[in-house]
């Protein structure tokens, strides 16, 4: 899987199975995104690295907004805890 981030610990933490494919998403402004396919499902993996969006408080705000959108019926990928 070229360009794939280190996934072993992350997959074990969420019991997400073994990685089958991890492909970078070419679109995005501040962070890196990956389409991740495992033996247990498909995921969108977001790597927060921009200083303005990588702070824990900023990530918590973004996750809260995503959860509110999901509650309104907007099709979003909900964040996983931790």
Question: Beta-strand level of the residues, as a percent range?
Answer: 25-35%
Number of helices: 3
**Main sheet?**
3 strands, antiparallel
Element order, helices and strands?
Answer: HEEEHH
Mean pLDDT: 86
| Number of domain modules | 1
Low-confidence segments, given as residue ranges, are none
Counting helices, strands and paired strands, the structural category is: alpha+beta
- Our Rg estimate from Cα atoms comes to 13 Å
* Strand runs, count: 3
Oligomer: single chain
Helical fraction equals: 25-40%
Straight-line N-to-C gap: 25 Å
Strand order of the largest sheet: 1-2-3
Gross morphology: globular
Briefly summarize what is shown.
This protein is of the alpha+beta class. Helices cover 32% and strands 26% of the residues. The model has no long low-confidence stretch (mean pLDDT 86).
């Amino acid at each position: 899987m070229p360009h794939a981030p280190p996934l072993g610990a992350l997959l074990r933490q969420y019991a997400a199975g073994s990685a089958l494919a991890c492909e970078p998403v070419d679109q995005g402004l501040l962070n890196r995104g990956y389409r991740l396919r495992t033996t247990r499902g498909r995921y969108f993996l977001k790597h927060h690295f921009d200083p303005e969006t990588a702070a824990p408080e900023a990530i918590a705000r973004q996750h809260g907004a995503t959860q509110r959108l999901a509650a309104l019926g907007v099709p979003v990928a909900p964040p996983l805890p931790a």
